[in-house]
Amino acid sequence: MSRKRIDLALQGGGAHGAFTWGVLDRLLEDERLEIAAVSGTSAGAMNAVVLADGLMAGGRAAARERLRRFWTRVSRAASAGTALAALFGDWSFRGSPLAWYADWVLRTFSPHQFNPLDINPLRDILAEEVDFERVRGCDRMQLFVSATSVRTGRLREFRGPELSVEAVMASACLPTLFRAVEIDGEAYWDGGYVGNPSLLPLVAESPEHDLVLVQINPSCRDEVPTAAHEIVDRLNEITFNSSLVKELRTLALLRQLLEGEGPPSAQGRAPFFAQVAALRLHRIDAEEELAQLGAASKLNAAWPFVSRLHRIGRDTANHWLARNFTHLGRRSTLPLKTYLR
Question: Which of 127, 162, 131, 133 is nearest to 146 (CA)?
Fold first, then answer.
């Protein structure tokens, strides 16, 4: 059966990455699709390497099982404190004593002080659940993981053969929670600051033209925030969407210039510009549901919350496929022109 090949760009967002798990779970279930390349940041990077490991180990079924096992272990390893938020009846932690205390700790102490042993359960889970030698040899799809260089502030893309536990942990390293991750003498922080996720490697290095963005952080809010926690949450969303918006705007400007110059000359366009001209962009998101959750809930890995996000992701992907599958290979369902306004 001829399958439609797509590239995936997976945004980061802590525990909200369980939404992306749900999306991947549904996409892997659809035999009409094939994932050709993935770019991921933070939780998106974790989903990406677990996906690749599963595909190499046993195909779609194994990938779906590995993703479920990974998120189950993440939830089990979560501190008892994260589950306490459910007692206050608010998935976002807003207004709970736990949120106030956590905010005070993070503003007062650095990770070198409150976590001197640099303990991070996610590192152990990744090392145990993912065979990185198999990931580095992945021939089922291309892989790109983004991190931010602390020294230069620039984006670092780790490609398939370079991937390791350290590279993925660097991509997910929030500097208020964990020490910078050092790789080959360079220190790295979360990739979300400069590429969340990075689209350029998919456009420049993948031969496919259908790029599907799986977005976690809401783009728009109709009301101006007035409460302190609402302002902080919106700043968080804007910060972790800013690099994505800039990349989309750059692609939109390039497309506009290419359309303005008319058909390519006899010599043809450079490969990158040909890819930009042929790019078909799509987005899977659940802005209405995820907008109800505060930034603090990205630290909530309690299983009821994680499984809820998984269900939202599956349902969202299912609805997206029903509406847009026929458009894959034909046209964009997320017009780039919207980013020129």
Answer: 162
Contact between 192 and 41 under an 8 Å Cβ cutoff? The reply is yes
**8 A C-beta contact, residue 191 and residue 149:** no
Asked whether the beta carbons of 126 and 326 are under 8 A apart, the reply is no
CB 289 within 8 A of CB 312: yes
Give the bridge partners for 284, in sequence order.
214
Which residues neighbour 10 within 8 Å (Cβ) at sequence distance 6 or greater? Answer: 17, 20, 38, 39, 40, 41, 43, 44, 45, 47, 48, 197, 214
Tell me how crowded residue 256 is: count the other CB atoms within 10 A of its CB.
12
Residue 206, phi then psi, degrees to nearest 5: -100, 140
What is the three-class DSSP state of 188?
strand
For 112-128, b where at least 16 C-beta lie within 10 A, e where not — what string? eeeeeeeebebbebbee
Provide the pairing of β-strand 181-183 with 155-159: unpaired
**CB–CB of 17/30 below 8 Å?**
no
Contact 22, 222 (CB under 8 A): no
Predicted model pTM: 0.90
- Read off the pLDDT of residues 157-172 as tens digits, 9 standing for 90 and up: 999 999 999 999 999 9
Helices (H), 158-266: 165-171, 200-205, 228-260
Distance, in Å, from the CA atom of 112 to the CA atom of 232, rounded to the nearest integer, reads 24
Give the model confidence (pLDDT) of 15-53 as tens digits.
999 999 999 999 999 999 999 999 999 999 999 999 999
| 167 three-state secondary structure | helix
Q: Phi/psi at 21 (nearest 5 deg)?
A: -55, -45
Residue 326: exposure state from Cβ atoms within 10 A (0-12, 13-18, ≥19): exposed
Q: Specify the DSSP element, H or E, that contains 227.
A: none
Question: pLDDT digit string (tens) for 92-127?
Answer: 455 555 555 556 555 666 776 667 667 788 899 999
